[in-house]
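From the shared-data thread, chain only:
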Amino acid sequence: MNALYPRSSPKQTPTTGTCRRRELKPDQGTVMNTHHFLMAAATAFGLSTAIAQEATPDTWKDTPSTRSRAEVQQELEVARARGELDHVRQYDSPARNFKSTLTRAEVLADLEIWRRSGLAAQGRGEASPDFFSEEYRQAHARYAAMKASPEFAALVQTIARERGETVLAGRPANPAVR
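Structure, as tokens:
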């Protein structure tokens, strides 16, 4: 007899209050488990198809066009000339014509002191750091002090030399910045 699937189950008799074992049919437990599994699978399938159904049909795709491509392009140019599409420009990438004012050595040195100050450890995890915690404030104060220190300038110079960048008086030359 298997401990997980016993062949009998206890049943109390109403008159004596004692338990007697009722014999189960050999496959009754398996049939019930299969029945429950199939019902759960059917329910899950029904729910998943209901959720996956699109909320709005794509009937607009079958709508015939009333204007030619040239007419649409001309209408676009007229709208641009009138300034009707200026609000769309706010979604353009602001970095399209971006020119950095920092050299690569300055960026790498800043990253290094950010790590050393403890600010990198504050931003770990899924949530944003607690900007109001004492621990964050102390790390930020260390970062600001390190950034203003002569050690930061020395670190920039060291990184610039390691990268083969030209170093001008006090800071590495940035050929992209004029």
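The CA atoms of residues 12 and 18 lie 6 Å apart.
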